[in-house]
Amino acid sequence: TTPAQLAAAIPKAELHIHIEGSLEPELIFALAQRNGLSLPYPSVEALRDAYAFTNLQSFLDIYYAGASVLLHEADFHDMAWAYFLRAKADNVVHTEIFFDPQTHTARGVPMATVIQGLSSACERARAELGVSAALILCFLRHLSEDDAFATLEAALPYRQHFIGVGLDSSEVGHPPSKFSRVFARCRELGFHVVAHAGEEGPPAYIREAIDDLKTERIDHGVRSLEDPALVAELARRRIPLTVCPLSNLKLCVVDDLRQHPMKRLLDAGLCATVNSDDPAYFGGYMNANFVQTVEALDLSRDDVITLARNSFEASFVSATRRAELM
Ligand code: HPA
Ligand code: ZN
């Protein structure tokens, strides 16, 4: 087996996937039709042609527009189920899924609709596919901390359906410290805590995430390499980075996959993992990310095994499920 074949075949966990980012153009159109909505694009092809991004914000604008077709519990369920089928095909055996409730509650969709639709798909994935799945509620960082508190409050009646909280959306200008109080509350409540940092934002945001929010993982974190002392600390404390190579390429964080920092992150001893971020928008699911990264960077079989092992080490799986998987 080549390293790329091993990457495709090896069992792995996915830890950085926004479920709204798994909404394929075909499903966006199907849900729009089912819900009697019209879209500002004439066809699936025209929508897909609009997926030419220059930075994070240019992507987020179209990502939030796509999510506007989600109205009913079945819509959330169907979206997540389509992702689980793709995950299963890529030998993903465990996945921790971000969702953005504020994107939906701001449009009048009840919190219960969002969480119950996603949660029932997670249970079905475990039962029918043998894929374990958990949900992580993300706060939108371009909104206020008060809005995040209100979102937490609205979600607490469903707290058994999600294991943690995260922080996503427009990074620059919205440092992690903006959310110190709400993350402190979430930690008190016993939730796992993660945050996007160092995707477009500076290494100082990664430092704030770990020092101020006390996050257990960093989502992206590729800009950590600009601060050697920070890299040393992330390595020493085994704070994982959930890296998304095709996302970095499509959002112009790197110009070419051959310049992707994954190899440098591994060589620095970091617990880096491969993930798809928003696979419907960035050109591929888990194995597309894994195989293309292995080929572009000429990663070895040992690197592949390290990445797969890191994905389980970095996960929040229960001890019993971990024993099954490792
Ligand atoms: N970064 C920030 N917010 C996001 C992303 C991302 O990569 N994907 C979906 N929301
Ligand atoms: Zn992300």
Automatic annotation (TrEMBL):
<keyword id="KW-0378">Hydrolase</keyword>
<dbReference type="Pfam" id="PF00962">
    <property type="entry name" value="A_deaminase"/>
</dbReference>
<protein>
    <recommendedName>
        <fullName>Adenine deaminase</fullName>
        <ecNumber>3.5.4.2</ecNumber>
    </recommendedName>
</protein>
<dbReference type="InterPro" id="IPR006330">
    <property type="entry name" value="Ado/ade_deaminase"/>
</dbReference>
<dbReference type="GO" id="GO:0016787">
    <property type="term" value="F:hydrolase activity"/>
</dbReference>
<dbReference type="InterPro" id="IPR032466">
    <property type="entry name" value="Metal_Hydrolase"/>
</dbReference>
<feature type="active site" description="Proton donor">
    <location>
        <position position="199"/>
    </location>
</feature>
<feature type="binding site">
    <location>
        <position position="16"/>
    </location>
    <ligand>
        <name>Zn(2+)</name>
    </ligand>
</feature>
<feature type="site" description="Important for catalytic activity">
    <location>
        <position position="220"/>
    </location>
</feature>
<dbReference type="InterPro" id="IPR028892">
    <property type="entry name" value="ADE"/>
</dbReference>
<keyword id="KW-0862">Zinc</keyword>
<comment type="function">
    <text>Catalyzes the hydrolytic deamination of adenine to hypoxanthine. Plays an important role in the purine salvage pathway and in nitrogen catabolism.</text>
</comment>
<feature type="binding site">
    <location>
        <position position="18"/>
    </location>
    <ligand>
        <name>Zn(2+)</name>
    </ligand>
</feature>
<comment type="similarity">
    <text>Belongs to the metallo-dependent hydrolases superfamily. Adenosine and AMP deaminases family. Adenine deaminase type 2 subfamily.</text>
</comment>
<dbReference type="InterPro" id="IPR001365">
    <property type="entry name" value="A_deaminase_dom"/>
</dbReference>
<feature type="binding site">
    <location>
        <position position="278"/>
    </location>
    <ligand>
        <name>substrate</name>
    </ligand>
</feature>
<feature type="binding site">
    <location>
        <position position="196"/>
    </location>
    <ligand>
        <name>Zn(2+)</name>
    </ligand>
</feature>
<keyword id="KW-0546">Nucleotide metabolism</keyword>
<keyword id="KW-0479">Metal-binding</keyword>
<feature type="binding site">
    <location>
        <position position="277"/>
    </location>
    <ligand>
        <name>Zn(2+)</name>
    </ligand>
</feature>
<feature type="domain" description="Adenosine deaminase">
    <location>
        <begin position="11"/>
        <end position="326"/>
    </location>
</feature>
